[in-house]
Structures are given as C-alpha cells and as structure tokens.
Amino acid sequence: MKRFDLIIVGAGPSGLSAAIEAANRGMNVVVFDENEKPGGQLFKQIHKFFGSKEHKAKVRGFVIGEQLLKEASEAGVTVVLNATVIGLYQDKEVVVKIGDGVEHYKADSVLIATGASENMVTFEGWTLPGVIGAGAAQTMMNLHGIKPGQKVLMLGSGNVGLVVSFQLLQAGCEVVGLVDAAPRVGGYGVHAAKIARCGVPFYLSHTIVKAEGTDCVTGVTIAQVDKNFQFVEGSEKHFDVDTICLAVGLSPMSQLLKMAGCKMEDNPKRGGQVPICDEFGATSIPGIFVAGDVSGIEEASSAMIGGRIAGITAAQYLGFIDKEEQLTKCEENKKALDGLRQGMFAPKNRGKLVEKTEEGIPVSMNLLEKGFIANDEMERFPGVTHKAGVHPVMECTQNIPCNPCQDACPKHCIKIGEKITSLPAVDESVDCIGCGMCVASCSGQAIFLLDETYEEGFAAVTLPYEFLPLPKEGEKGYGLGRDGKVVCEAEVVQVKTAKAFDHTNLLTIKVPADMAMKARFYKKEA
C-alpha cells in the first residue's frame, strides 16, 4: 500500500492550490481526480475573474487553471486522473478506482476538495433529452466545442445562470429568456446587464410549468408565481426551444467526509450538508481537511484561497512548518479572502434586499427587477461623467469586490481606493487618452469610452465586444439600448484588438449625439 504525506481528492482550483502550498513545504502530495483533465470548473470558465491582482482579477478561468497546473508540476505534485475515490476511512485510508482496478492508499493527512454538484428541479417533462444543467452546457461549449442547442431557455439568475447565458450567446445559441422564481436578479448586475443589452428578456417571479415534447424538448411553458410561489392563473407564456438549461444552485459533494465520520451539519447558507470545520479547513477528525465548495458554496477565487489555507495548515499539522509560519501565512490569505466576502454579495447579505450602496446611493431597482439600469437611474453613480473629448463611463453600480480598472488606467483616470468594493469613480482632473485598457480589463464589461463631441451632431461610443465574427469598419447597423432594443442607427468607425486586451475587442460606433448615454451594444443590419 503506497503512502503519502498528503492525499488530496479533487484537482479543481481549491485542491490544486492546496497541493501547491503543501508540496512547496516539502510534503509528498498526490491528487486524485475522476476526470480526464485536471483543473475542475476552471477550464469551463472562459470569462474574466473579479477581485484584484492577488485574486487573479481580469484573468480568464481556463488561464488560471493552466497556471495552477504548471505550479503544481513545478512543485512536484503527482496528479492521477480518471481516478475515482470511492472510500475514505478514519485511519486515512483512501480507496481509489483506477481503470478496472481498485487500489488502496494511506496518508498522514487527507484533504477533500471534491467541489459541488448541480441541483435540479422537477417539472412536467424534466427528464426529456434537452433539459440540462448549466455546468453541462459549459462542458459542451467550452471543453468540447459543441453547441448545447439552437434555442435555449435559462432557469436561474444567479451568477452561474447569467455567465452561462452569455456564453450560450457567444457560442451562437439564441437565448429566448432568462427565468427565475425570485423577484430579483440573484447574481451580479453587470452580468445581467451585458445579457440584457444583447436583447435577452428577463422573466422574474416566473418559473417553468412544463417542458414540451415526446422524444426530446420542443418547447417550454413558463408562468408567473405569487409570493407563495404558486402559479398565477392566466400568466402562462410559451416558447419554442430545443434546450432548457437549469442553473438552480449547487450542493456540496461531501459524501466522503460523512463516510470518514467527520461531524456534519445541514447548513442552507453553505449549500447543504457540509463538514463542521474551523477557519483553517480542519474537520473534527485530526488530519482530515477540506477546501472549496465541499465546505460551502462560493466563487472559484475564494476556493483557491481556501485551498491555500488548508494546504498550509496540513503542512503545519505534520510538522513541515512551525505554528508561527502557519498563522502568518494563513492570516495573509484570510485577509485576501475577507476582501472577497465584502460588499452587496457578502455571505451576510444572502437573501437580503440591499437598497443602498456603501456610498449611500439608491440601488437600481430596474437592474434588480429587469436586468438593466434605467436611463434615468444612471446619472446618480460616480462612474458617470460628461466632458469634452474621450472619457470613461463606468456602469458598475453595485459594491462588488473588484478593482482591475483602477490598475489598468495608465493615467489613473479611475479611482476605487483601498476598499475593493467601492464603486469606481472618475477623476475629472485627469484627461483620458482613450487607450481602452479600462474597457478591456473590466470583468463585468461595464465600462465604455464616450466622445460626446466626436463630430457635429454625433458621438462615439467604444464598447467591449466578445462575439465573432467581428464587425468591420464602415459597417452600418443599429445601436441597442441597455434593454437590448434598437435606439438608433449606428456606424462602426473602429475595431481594436490587442494582446493586452485578452480577447476583449473594442468596438467604436458612431451614433447621434443624444444617444451617447443610451447606445450600449451594436447589431448589424439584417
């Protein structure tokens, strides 16, 4: 029976981060993962991450995955793939199914980083082919290059539902609507806004009545629900679709911990059945640690930091580092983690309606209820200014832990300050040079460059664009408003791509001067 200092189950963001920290401190580490490729959910995530530099902000998920794999290899971590862990026992014996065989391993410490599984909801026809989870859609698109369907309805307006809806649009699918039984958008407003301006309608306080079809999905009926989540008679709406995508939450995959005898609790705020653990990821059984979604559902950025903390703690548990080093290094990581747990979407605010920003500005109710900011709400936010020449307009209106725009601007036109959740503001004493780095760096695609005096009677709007094929200079089309409806005619005057933009193209359109604060997307003439 082969022995290791540390066995890690799960080669996702938290497991790899833990492995790197432990191996860098001299531990013999092996990571088992049931998949063909390591990296967990990271390789499905083609969007840019939020946070700051230390959280790998504005870096796309799959790139972060590549970085972690390289670090793990350099640290000497052994990663075993197509290896399903089917048993974990109190004496830290791990049973692994590899191919047709079953093998047993022992370790002085074990770290479980198995992540979470997608939740499902039941409705008439929910077992038909064509009803899939949002994670499955991501796997099909971003790992295998397969369109999940042609016409898709998304159920769920949390970050997963919003992000995957946008990726469906990028893959060339038509998203007929985004549905949620809750009365308000559950995820980041910037994610909702970039979908709304593409013309996707939001149906909040609605849910699915039934999926239609015999052998596969051919349509779907939704209906409004009341405050008791009962269908409102006469509110039914029908859509012809071939795919229904479900993004209705995640549940920790904590079965191995329960098998090992770790103390568990049913904690809805953390996603369900989770182990009782301390701030360092140590469970009730000495030497068994946890990290990532298995200990509570959070973003991948938080999972990576939690993994680092658990990996450092495992090294201290076995005497590879002393207590002082553990506490010092863990404290550094905890500060970074605390930064991600602030703002409107902090764990303490889950389920609450936050009506004002930290700055005391009323939150856009239109954004929460319809997915986009109303024109008459936009001017009250500090990211909106009007001056001659090119200048940034930042439609980031919620306190989200993110600040890459502040670092991206070479002239320091944009200021957020030390508090990472503060709304971005424009320093009007500094002249923008129109480089577009802020537009490209914004993880929420919420920054635009405006030249309200571009030509007599016309303004220029530079917007982020991540669709193919790219429009061509001189092309004629339409400017779409924040709600995705046509507001004016538009002409493409510039298309900029650069390595520094990391596949976020800058599209500049010429629009009537009075449309400068309204046109937020471009659509080619049919």
Description:
This protein is α/β, with parallel strands linked by helices and 526 residues long. The protein folds into 3 domains: 2-117 and 250-340, FAD/NAD(P)-binding domain (3-Layer(bba) Sandwich); 120-246, FAD/NAD(P)-binding domain (3-Layer(bba) Sandwich), CATH 3.50.50; 375-524, no CATH class. The chain is 22% helix and 28% strand. The chain has helices at residues 13-23, 61-75, 134-143, 159-170, 189-196, 255-260, 300-317, 323-340, 365-370, 375-378, 404-408, 437-441, and strands spanning 2-9, 29-32, 78-80, 83-88, 93-98, 101-112, 116-118, 131-133, 151-155, 174-180, 202-204, 206-212, 219-224, 237-239, 243-246, 250-252, 264-267, 272-275, 288-290, 390-394, 414-415, 425-426, 447-455, 458-465, 476-480, 486-496, 505-512, 521-524. Strands 1, 2, 3, 4, 5, 6 and 19 form a 7-stranded mixed sheet that branches. Strands 20-23-24-27-26-25-28 form a 7-stranded antiparallel sheet. A 5-stranded parallel sheet has the order 8-15-9-10-11. Helix 1 packs parallel to helix 2 and helix 3 runs parallel beside helix 4. The longest helix is centred in the middle third of the chain and has 18 residues, at 300-317. The radius of gyration is 24 Å and the shape is globular. The relative contact order is 0.12. The mean pLDDT is 95. It holds the Pfam family Pyr_redox_2. Keywords: Oxidoreductase. This is FAD-dependent oxidoreductase. Residues 386-419, 422-452 form the 4Fe-4S ferredoxin-type domain.
